[in-house]
Amino acid sequence: MKNHFLSYYIAVFLGFCFSNGITDAQNKEKNNFEDWENKPPIVEPGECNSPPSDAIVLFDETLDNWMTISGENVTWPVSKKGFRVIPGTGDIITKQKFGSCQLHVEWKIPDDENHKETLDWGNSGLYFMGLYEVQIYDSYMDKHKIYYNGQAGSIYKQHSPLVNSSRKPGEWQTFDIVFNAPVFNTEGELKSPASFTVFHNGVLIQNNAILIGATEHTDYTEYKAHEDKLPLLIQCHGAGVYYRNIWIREL
Hints:
Layout: H1 2-20, H2 24-30, E1 56-59, E2 66-68, E3 78-79, E4 82-84, E5 92-98, E6 101-108, E7 124-128, E8 132-136, E9 173-180, E10 183-184, E11 190-192, E12 195-200, E13 203-210, E14 230-234, E15 242-250
Antiparallel strand pairs: 1-15, 2-5, 3-4, 4-15, 5-14, 6-9, 6-15, 7-8, 7-14, 9-12, 10-11, 12-13
C-alpha cells in the first residue's frame, strides 16, 4: 500500500516538473492566438490634456506651424493663453500634411460675442484634409439656434452630435477627434469612406460617423479622389474664436 502511494506522488511530481519545462516557443506554438511578435511602441502619455510623447505639437505659443491659404505668415494675435481668429482675414492651414490622425484641440467662444446674424455666434470649424469639417459654434443650452447638423460637434451638414455637451461662452472646451481618411484605388474610385469619432469635453458625441463625401454648405456631396495627406484647416467664419493646446498624432 505504501509503495502504491509513493508511486502516485512520484508520478504527480514528475508531471509537474515536465509541464513547467515547456519552452516559451512551445507555449507560443500551443497558444497561436496570442500575439508575441508585434510589440506596440511605448508612448508616454501626457497629463491634463498635454501631448503624449509621439504627438506633433501644432500650437505651442506660436503659429509657426501654420500659414494662410496663400502661403503667407499668420497674423492672428497670440499669447500664452492661445490665439484668436480675426474675422475677415481668411482660413489658415498647417504647413504639414496629414491623413488619418488623432487630434486634440481646445477652443473658446468669447464671452462678449454679439452678432446680429444668428449663424455667426462662435462660428468656426476644423477641416481635416481641408475637406471634412467638425463644426465649432456657440451651442450652449441651444441658445443660438442653428440646424442640428450644424451645431458644435456636428460633422457639418451630415451628422448631428449624439448629445449637446457645450460649455458656455468664456469657458475653454475640448475636442478629441479620431479621423480615418478616405482611401481611393489607383483609378480614383473610393475603397473606404472617411469617418469621425469625436469626444466633446470628454463626452462621446460622434461614434464612427461615416461621411458621404466632403462637407459642403449644400446638402449634396460626393467623394473626389485626392492625395493621401493634406493640410488641416481652421476656418475663419465671422467670429473671434480662441484656440490653444493643439496637437496631433498620425495613425
